[in-house]
Amino acid sequence: MNYMEMIIAILLGIIVILLNRSINEQLETRNLLEKKLFDKESHNGGLLNELGYLKHIHKELEKLADKNIKN
């Protein structure tokens, strides 16, 4: 193996390590975001649960508005 092949092998190894590190960081970020979206026990009770609650409140407000219009 000559020097050029060794240098190429080392550079390819470095590229693989950097790509692996980047992929791991992206997966960790994705997992954290999914936890915030779906986890009922997270800090904010789960963003999707909060959204469902807000939709429920919106429907109730629409019902009240319809009752007020009829009266």
What topology emerges from the helices and strands here?
Elements: H1 3-38, H2 47-70
Plain-language structure description:
The chain is mostly helical and 71 residues long. The protein has one domain (3-70). Helix content is 85%, strand content 0%. The protein contains two helices and no strands. It has helices at residues 3-38, 47-70. The longest helix has 36 residues, at 3-38. It is rod-shaped.
Mean pLDDT: 82
The total strand number stands at: 0
The unreliable regions are: none
Overall morphology = rod-shaped
What's the tally of helices?
Answer: 2
What is Rg? 26 Å
**Helix-strand pattern, N to C?**
HH
Residue fraction in strands: under 5%
Q: Any idea how many domains? A: 1
Binned, the helix content reads: over 70%
What is the CA-CA span between the terminal residues? 91 Å
Q: Largest sheet, described in full?
A: none
Provide the structure class: mainly alpha
List keywords for this structure.
single chain, 71 residues, mainly alpha, rod-shaped
